[in-house]
Amino acid sequence: VSLGAVTLFCISVFSFLVFLRYQIYYGYPLQTYLEYPIIIAQDVILLLCILHFNGKTERALFFAVIYWGGWYMLALQRWIIDLAMNLCTFISAASKLAQLQHLWQTKDSGQVSALTWSMSAYTCASKLQTT
């Protein structure tokens, strides 16, 4: 698994954190966002497995610090959380474009494609379970 694929996966986990923090910040009922903590936990476990089996376990601390810092920075000001929520769609699209660029440059979709399909299937399965 390439470092780029791991980075893209981390971006998607961060967007889930933004959604969760937004829901909590504005006091929405727990039932409207209960699936997000479960999805985040599942994705973090998957990320730790990817990092462990690629021999990059020390990167887990880096991502943990980024997530923890991001969690608290989102709620510093109301405009920050609103802006982050509005940028989530753009961030998601940008991660897909970065993935397509990587595929174009390498001219090989073998490993990236398998990872992409695995993460997509995993996300869909977890959404079915939590819904």
UniProtKB/TrEMBL annotation:
Assigned keywords, A-Z: Membrane, Transmembrane, Transmembrane helix
PANTHER family xref list: MANNOSE-P-DOLICHOL UTILIZATION DEFECT 1 LEC35 -RELATED (PTHR12226), SOLUTE CARRIER FAMILY 66 MEMBER 3 (PTHR12226:SF3)
Organism: Menura novaehollandiae
Protein name: PQLC3 protein
Transmembrane segments: 6-24, 36-54, 60-81
